Amino acid sequence: MKENFYVFLDIDGVLWNEEYIVFLRDNNIPKDNDIETYFSSKSMTALNTLLNSLENKFKVQLVITSSRRSLLEKTIAILYKNNLVYDDKIDKTESTIKNIDMPRGLEIKKYLKQNKNSKNYVVIDDEVKDIKPFIKHSHIIDVKNEGLQLHHIEKFLKAKDVSVLNLNENER
Known about the structure:
By secondary structure, this protein is an alpha/beta fold. The chain has a single domain (about 5-170), classed as 3-Layer(aba) Sandwich (Rossmann fold). Helix content is about 30%, strand content about 15%. α2 packs parallel to α5.
């Protein structure tokens, strides 16, 4: 039986960034004025490559850490609209304890503790200052302001000794 591997995903700044939003606006792409539902195809390809590569070795669990988790069903629909290739349940971290906001890193640490996992996970985010005090650096993909890119995924997978598989290499 495969071990679990948790992928903690922020969305804003990860699956789209300011440069991508400018591109969309300049090209009048969003017809419905909901520009934040259009994710970068490069970022989605990178995410799908990560999930596909990890699934070769682990049972992958996608966990939303974004502020969008409060509308989880809508967020999941938007991910699939943007070509997410993932066929398991999508979960979320909890954002408060007794109405007190927690740093995102602490939310993730709590989630891992509840799921009895402290070694098989990655956190993908563009703002990691509230994550770093709680999560080992080797488990963080900091996309900064460029959005998630394939080079982030390749570097992480190489460090974890996991082969990079494109979707067409391992049909799901």
